[in-house]
Amino acid sequence: MQNEIKKICIITDINGIYGFGHFTRMKFIANKLKNFYDFIFSSINDKSDIYSKSNIETCKFNEIKNIRPYLTIIDCREIDKKYIK
């Protein structure tokens, strides 16, 4: 029986003012670990530029619970406590 590849959700953000460093760092980690985990990116901001990236898998923030990731990594400049459970 083959092991199932576990999904990791990365929550970060990109917009015109900030966030590209956060995204670049998380994309680097995802690329290094892609043989062991399946990565999906998301943002609490529905208008984030992260959703325009064609080379990554994305989902809207409110869809994360349906994916049931093995692990969620949050790399954002600021995040409200209500988003962390």
Which secondary structure elements does this structure contain, and how are they paired or packed?
Elements: E1 6-11, H1 20-32, E2 37-42, H2 64-67, E3 71-74
Parallel strand pairs: 1-2, 1-3
Question: Could you give a short description of this structure?
Answer:
The chain has helices at residues 20-32, 64-67, and strands at 6-11, 37-42, 71-74.
Mean pLDDT: 85
Overall structural class, as computed from helix and strand content, comes to alpha/beta
Biggest sheet, in brief? 3 strands, parallel
Outline the low-pLDDT stretches: none
Overall outline: globular
**Radius of gyration over all CA atoms, rounded:** 13 Å
Q: Main sheet: which strands, in order across?
A: 2-1-3
Question: How many helices?
Answer: 2
Share of residues in helices: 10-25%
List keywords for this structure.
single chain; alpha/beta; 3-stranded parallel beta sheet; 85 residues; 2 helices
Walk me through what this model shows.
By secondary structure, the protein is of the alpha/beta class. The protein has helices at 20-32, 64-67; strands at 6-11, 37-42, 71-74. Strands 2-1-3 form a 3-stranded parallel beta sheet, with no helix packed on it. Strand 1 (6-11), helix 1 and strand 2 form a beta-alpha-beta unit. The longest helix is centred in the N-terminal third of the chain and has 13 residues, at 20-32. The model has no long low-confidence stretch (mean pLDDT 85).
